[in-house]
Amino acid sequence: MTEPGKRPRIEPQQWMLEPPTRAVLDALAAGGVEARFVGGVVRDALLGLPIGEPGTRTDIDLATPAPPERVAELLQQRGIKVVPTGLAHGTVTAIPPAEPGTMPRHFEITTLRRDVETFGRRARVAFDADWAADAARRDFTINAIFLSPDGILDDPTGGLSDLKARRVRFVGEPTTRIAEDVLRILRYYRFEARFGTGTGDPQARAACRAAAHLLPKLSAERVAQELVRILETADPSAALEMMAEDGVLAVILPEARRLDRLRRMIAIEPEPDPLRRLAALIAVDGPGAQAVAERLRFPNAWRDRLRELAPPWPFDPHGDPPIQRRALYRLGAARFRDLALLAAADGLLRLERLTELLRLARDWTAPNLPLTGHDVRALGIPPGPRVGALLDAVERWWEAADFTPNRSQCLARLKELVTGGEIGRGNLDELDG
After folding, report:
1. What is the distance in angstroms between the CA of the first residue and the CA of the last residue of the chain?
2. Which residues sit opposite 123 in a β-bridge?
3. Which parts of 296-388 are beta strand (E)?
4. Shared domain check, 389 and 337
5. 220-232 helix and 184-195 helix, angle to the nearest 10 degrees
6. pLDDT tens profile 88-127
7. What does the pLDDT average to over 8-14?
8. pLDDT band at 52; cut points 50, 70, 90
9. Is residue 33 assigned to a domain?
10. Which of 249, 167, 161, 158 is nearest to 204 (CA)?
11. CA dihedral of residues 105, 196, 221, 85 (deg, nearest 10)
12. What is the mean pLDDT of residues 345-374?
């Protein structure tokens, strides 16, 4: 327990003691500059989340009263690389030398500031704030906790109690925070998905509802980034339900009409997959999925995958083993597994059957057709469309035989096709067409 009148403290964390962190802190301290950790790194440390390990948070934010030019000067005197990432807003990024075999650690160091005037995501700031004034301009109370290098916590906005209660609350007036940056609407629901209870803060939700019509002003890339981050959380269903109730989801993703299917997907999936979850959430066909992906400016690979996960799904989950092996051969293991999960989430197959299909996708190794185009040309077929058509015909025959014919049998089948034993010239012309 913290004694009355004393600020709470925690034991210095491992990431606070690492050589890169010490190098930055020592460089600033040598010039008499105070620095405190702030933001997500403090929040995650208080929650006991890993920091600095592979797949976890590696960026560290620091705040300081010193102007950015002084910060840069002190760091450079110690041989630390400085990147002027946002001098107008008082921010520089320090990249101390990395130890052999480790990734470079980035420290974003920002001068204490207050907003003089805001313009959406931009603001004109003044560097005359104290710690409390700087905290007052941050987004959420759980992001406005300062941590000194010796473990002392400074909590001007009540973030510690909110973190303990799993309460996501804007700093100050929610409408003001949102007016400063509309993206905070989506960030609010993302933080609810990660840290909230599933019901939300009434004031925050009211402000988000009132400002939802402003979301189209955001770039598609920023909307997509926040949406994917929401879908990456352990269970985003409650946050998405709130977004639907508050009119936010209809603005950014009107196709999101299958929350029921998403909930079932979350319950059965082996691991979270944001794109597969998105495919479960939206009620679209292939062209509709492509339109969603293009609107959100997804990379081409994401666009193609989302389209391929849209119904109608090109496989019969109830077919016999040879049918499943043919589907797996055609679709590939990853897509076959995704479609099986989507079908189960849609209520089309029982969990026992899903388990069988997932086991097949894991254990079955697709064979290679024991023929190539060289084998076709060796029979006197000149290069051109007919080579591919003949190979396709043999491959379909081989698949229908459950991939059991060997090379000799496949060659014999190819010769039959070429000589017209079962398929004459007219059939081959149809294959060409």
Report:
1. 80
2. 118
3. none
4. no
5. 10
6. 789 999 999 987 767 778 999 999 987 655 545 555 567 7
7. 92
8. low
9. yes
10. 167
11. -30
12. 96
Same domain, yes or no: 130 and 268: no
Span 228-279, pLDDT tens digits: 999 999 999 999 999 999 999 999 999 999 999 999 999 999 999 999 999 9
Which of 331, 366, 401 is a domain's end point?
Answer: 366
The CATH number of the domain holding residue 87 is: 3.30.460.10
Do residues 227 and 250 make contact, with C-beta atoms less than 8 angstroms apart?
no
Residue at 247 is within a domain: no
Q: How far apart are CA 161 and CA 143, in angstroms?
A: 12
Q: In what order do the strands lie in the sheet with 81-86?
A: 81-86, 91-95, 107-111, 60-64, 36-38, 146-147, 153-154
Q: Which of 325, 342, 366 represents a domain boundary (last residue)?
A: 366
Helix (H) or strand (E) holding 114, with range, is strand 114-119
**Which residue, among 172, 226, 165, 225, has the nearest Cα to 196 in the 3D structure?**
165
- Per residue in 12-39, pLDDT (tens digit) is 999 999 999 999 999 999 999 999 999 9
Give the separation between CA 415 and CA 376, rounded to whole angstroms: 9
Question: For residues 382 and 421, what is the distance between their CA atoms, to the nearest angstrom?
Answer: 20
| Residue 50: predicted pLDDT | 83
- The range of the structural domain enclosing residue 97 comes to 1-165
pLDDT of amino acid 122: 55
**Entry field: residues in the chain:** 433
In a domain, 392, yes or no: yes
Asked if 128 and 47 sit in the same domain, the reply is yes
Per the listing, tokens 């388990």 go with 355
In terms of domains, do 344 and 407 share one?
no
Establish if 230 belongs to a structural domain: no
Question: Could you tell me if 139 and 259 lie in one domain?
Answer: no
